[in-house]
């Protein structure tokens, strides 16, 4: 039998955590924002993703076999770094 497309997507996503998905969203957002050359928009994007990484429960970010980072603490630490960096980007931006 052929597997449905949703089953294929589900079997692929089982190897990743919500932290990996948030990091992928962060990178995708960076790619979308960079052509606009707006540091304020980049700062807002960074603070939103940093806050999401910090408030997401650690149990949802337990690493799997294909996770980007090794522990949920590293995801939280990366979120804190983004939260510290974001106001600087926003304050330096002109438009």
Automatic annotation (TrEMBL):
<keyword id="KW-0472">Membrane</keyword>
<feature type="transmembrane region" description="Helical">
    <location>
        <begin position="12"/>
        <end position="34"/>
    </location>
</feature>
<feature type="transmembrane region" description="Helical">
    <location>
        <begin position="73"/>
        <end position="92"/>
    </location>
</feature>
<feature type="transmembrane region" description="Helical">
    <location>
        <begin position="41"/>
        <end position="61"/>
    </location>
</feature>
<feature type="domain" description="DUF8006">
    <location>
        <begin position="4"/>
        <end position="94"/>
    </location>
</feature>
<protein>
    <recommendedName>
        <fullName>DUF8006 domain-containing protein</fullName>
    </recommendedName>
</protein>
<dbReference type="Pfam" id="PF26028">
    <property type="entry name" value="DUF8006"/>
</dbReference>
<keyword id="KW-1133">Transmembrane helix</keyword>
<dbReference type="InterPro" id="IPR058319">
    <property type="entry name" value="DUF8006"/>
</dbReference>
<keyword id="KW-0812">Transmembrane</keyword>
């Amino acid at each position: 039998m052929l597997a449905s497309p949703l089953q294929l997507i589900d079997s692929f996503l089982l190897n990743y955590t919500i932290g990996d998905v948030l990091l992928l969203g962060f990178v995708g957002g960076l790619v979308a924002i960079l052509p606009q050359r707006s540091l304020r928009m980049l700062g807002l994007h960074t603070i939103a993703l940093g806050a999401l990484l910090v408030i997401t429960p650690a149990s949802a970010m337990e690493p799997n076999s294909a996770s980007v980072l090794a522990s949920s603490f590293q995801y939280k630490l990366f979120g804190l770094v983004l939260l510290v960096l974001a106001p600087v980007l926003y304050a330096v931006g002109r438009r």
